[in-house]
Model the fold of this input.
Amino acid sequence: KIVRTTDTGGIKLIYNGTPSNNSCNNTGTASQIGTSAFNIRYNNAEYVGYTYDTNTDSRIKKYIDDWYSKNMTSYTGMLEDTEWCNDRSVSSTDNGIDYGAYGRLMNLLYQIKPSINCPNESDKYTVSSSKGNGLLKYPVALLTADELALAGINNFESGANNYLNIRNKWWAMSPGAFSDVNDAYGFDVGGSGYLNISGVNISYGVRPALSLKLGTKVSSGNGSYYNPYQIVGG
Done:
């Protein structure tokens, strides 16, 4: 599914499963590549990271990279090396650590302020080190909580009818919090379409995202569920 355009004119997409009878109207487990914990461990703040501890891959990054290597390498030339933000900036330390997206999106005053800017260079995940941290093996990761909020998924109203909701829990890329009892939390989307935070060691759905390069050609389709775009190449 199309999520947004990038600053270089690319088109960010999120995985929604394998077409059936030329239709992409999938929900639930059919909209994900499987399930994974974000990280197996949870008792240190580093485990909110897409990588951690001198750039060790998180469990979910390994899971996504394995899927990509088996299914997507022939499409790499059609994808742009865009930025994927694992924003570990700190918004509050009142009770443990609240990370940047938590401060922007979980404000009790209902003042949602999503941002697609990534505050720390070290949190800008890219393949090329000239564009970001260079820690991605492939041009694929997860959508941020901010991108989901801009698409209408938030913590204060049901997103049950939102086009990204699959009626199943799945992970976002953004760190949530590290509690004062030593639990690491990341953002996820709940089955009712709410934006939540959950312990990083819990297994939820995995929906990779990638970005088509500017100029990618559509060979057929009108973009609907029942007549999806098909792109040239691959």
The two ends are 18 Å apart (CA to CA). The first strand starts at residue 2 and ends at 5. Helices lie at 59-71, 100-105, 145-150.
